Amino acid sequence: MRKTQIEVLKQGEMDAVFVNSILSAIQQRNLERAWEKPVLDRVGLIIEIFNAHAYTKEAKLQAELAAIMYKKSRLVRVRASDGRYTFGTKGEAEVVSARGRGSGGRGFISGAGETELELQRRRISERRKRLLAEIEEVRKTRAVQRAGRRKQGVLDAPGLATVAVVGYTNAGKSTLVSALSDSDLYSDDRLFATVDPRVRGVALPSGRKVLLSDTVGFISDLPVQLIEAFHATLEEVAEADLLVHVLDSSALNLEEQREAVLDVLRQIGVSGKKIEDMIEVWNKEDKEENQQNDDLSGWLGSRNGNEDEDDQLCSSKILTGVVDQKIKSLNESSMKEDGPDTHSEFKHITHVKTSAVTGVGLQELLELIDDKLVQIDKEQHSSQRVLEKSGFDRKWRPIQAEKVGIAVE
Ligand SMILES: Nc1nc2c(ncn2[C@@H]2O[C@H](COP(=O)(O)OP(=O)(O)OP(=O)(O)O)[C@@H](O)[C@H]2O)c(=O)[nH]1
Ligand SMILES: [Mg+2]
């Protein structure tokens, strides 16, 4: 870190210091020493929040995997003030475990055994393996459930399609899914209120039933550890028939949020066609346009990418792992002032303005989902027909030797 700015909110009550950049393990250790408080960088904070909001077994497994992978990357030895190498957050002296004594190192006498660092690394690797195996089980169960839903769809023609509601964290996804499905999903004005995908049945204006799936919120530069750990959950999104992208139209860094979501979708393997077919929902239209966005999500997104020039530091009170404190950026001047509709490049995207709170635009959104699914069905049928036709052709035509690379004498 070169230049740093520190904003300390309610220092007396502060349990941890949050730094909005990705710190190296050494930087983190030095700051913890200087401030005598745990320091969380961007990745650590996000993992902390995921952990706090994980209620189902699946979400807990995924959050733990992300946490241990993060912990592994933080395992360092540093030289303490007395010149000795120390280890651990409080700087405990390095210890030697019984494992490997006599067999490790170079011979019996010089065998250093296993250092605390190695021991921790081994424990993490073992735990990681177990977690991955358990997550794989979850993934399989999800695949079976999805197949079951599809099968049910075939029986209940015209089909039980899945519509995944995606978007930046705090955009209003859960509120929207609740409003559309007359059910109550947990929503809150905090980051990552939802970390488990929840599926709700909704009847469209045509009478067709679909499954709406509320998903985990995305964020700029979603840490790789989280994408990997939450693969099973994110698979729901990649496998959905249609995506509905919810945007908080009052967010000042709206373009950045949109891009961050598109980036994550690409990273998890969503096809370009599915992204093109996506419906955009410009939510929170009841809120005053371009109002100051004091959400932590906005702050995180807006500062993103400036770490080199001006590492932004701020603090947050962490209560039982949940960030309840809103953090304000020192300067939000770089925020865009335009609303979503002023960006001509996105004008071609099917969109609807909604308020999940007042209900404005919800009927229109359901109609759009209906229309899009009809369009997708048609496209699928026609590509199916093309496939069947080409299958028929292949059946009856003799193989042309030159096409399959057979040498002809
Ligand atoms: N004014 C207004 N507030 C909304 C609207 N939709 C959602 N909110 C509020 O925005 C906050 C976040 O809503 P959530 O539904 O939890 O957002 P989310 O996208 O599910 O968030 P994560 O699960 O954290 O990704 C809550 O305080 C909601 O009450 C809206 O249309 N208008
Ligand atoms: Mg949610």
CATH architect. name of the largest domain: 3-Layer(aba) Sandwich
Ions, cofactors and other ligands present here are: guanosine-5'-triphosphate, magnesium ion
Annotation field: number of helices: 12
The CATH class of the largest domain is: Alpha Beta
Q: What's the helical proportion of residues?
A: 40-55%
Largest sheet geometry: 6 strands, mixed
CATH topology of the largest domain: Rossmann fold
User: What is the mean predicted local confidence, pLDDT?
Assistant: 68
Secondary-structure element pattern, one letter each: EEHEHHEEEEHEHEHEEHHEHHEHEEEEH
Overall domain count: 2
Structural class, please?
A: alpha/beta
- Report low-confidence residues grouped into runs of 5 or more: 1-13, 85-111, 153-158, 292-345, 392-409
Q: Give the CA-CA distance, first to last residue.
A: 70 Å
Strand order, largest beta sheet = 10-11-9-12-13-17
Query: Beta-sheet strand percentage?
Result: 15-25%
Q: How many DSSP E strands?
A: 17
CATH superfamily of the largest domain: P-loop containing nucleotide triphosphate hydrolases
| Integer-rounded radius of gyration | 26 Å
Coarse morphology: globular
Architecture overview:
It comes from Chenopodium quinoa. The protein is α/β, with parallel strands linked by helices and 409 residues long. The protein folds into two domains: 14-96 and 114-156, 3-Layer(aba) Sandwich (Rossmann fold), CATH 3.40.50; 158-296 and 349-387, P-loop containing nucleotide triphosphate hydrolases (Rossmann fold). It is built from twelve helices and 17 strands. Strands 10-11-9-12-13-17 form a six-stranded mixed β-sheet, with helices on both faces. A four-stranded mixed β-sheet has the order 1-14-2-3. Strands 4-5-6 form a three-stranded antiparallel β-sheet, with no helix packed on it. Strand 10 (198-203) and strand 11 (209-214) form a beta hairpin. Helix 2 packs antiparallel against helix 3. The radius of gyration is 26 Å and the shape is globular. The model is unreliable at 1-13, 85-111, 153-158, 292-345 and 392-409 (pLDDT under 50). The structure holds guanosine-5'-triphosphate and magnesium ion (MG).
